[in-house]
Write a structure and sequence with these properties.
The protein has 144 residues and is mainly beta. Helices cover 8% and strands 44% of the residues. The chain is built from two helices and eight strands. The strands form two sheets. Strands 1-2-7-6 form a four-stranded antiparallel β-sheet, with no helix packed on it. The protein has a four-stranded antiparallel β-sheet with strand order 5-4-3-8, with no helix packed on it.
Length: 144
């Protein structure tokens, strides 16, 4: 009779068997969702920066975007409550989602002309560039 050794992978054995040069982000990969921050794409063009934030399930009223002293801050907060009453039971569901992302803007942007639009789960923020030397001002950005 032959004795076969089987390797049953576990979370701890996978962790300790990995080489030390592997980063934590590489090791966790698809196993854990560490951050609840939305994905962001930033595209620099000659005349502006285009920032796209993936935020499905939100409404434009949920966003609060400010630009102050070279810092663009995008905050979103959504609270949802549902209650269903039947003859024999009451079911209540509560959901709360929020995030905050901040970006340091370069010196060559027109912070007073920043605009934002939310459509189909994507928040698009446009940050136009400016001629050097103009002062930066604080501005509340409406979402359309």
């Amino acid at each position: 009779m032959t004795l076969l050794k089987r390797r049953i992978p576990t979370l701890l054995s996978d962790f300790f068997d990995e080489p030390f040069s592997t980063s934590v982000a590489d090791w966790f990969g698809d196993r854990l969702w560490i951050s609840r921050q939305p994905r962001v794409n930033i595209d620099e063009k000659n005349e502006q920066f285009d920032i796209e934030v993936a935020a499905p399930g939100m409404k434009k009223e949920d966003f609060h975007i400010t630009c102050d002293n070279g810092l663009l801050t995008i905050k979103a907060e959504r609270e949802e409550k549902k209650e269903e009453k039947q003859r024999n039971y009451t079911r209540r569901e509560y959901n709360y989602n929020s995030f905050c992302r901040s970006f340091t803007l370069p010196e060559n942007v027109k912070s007073e002309e920043v605009s934002a639009k939310y459509d189909n789960g994507i928040l698009r923020v446009t940050v136009p560039k400016k001629v050097k030397g103009e002062a930066k001002a604080k501005k509340e950005i409406p979402v359309s």
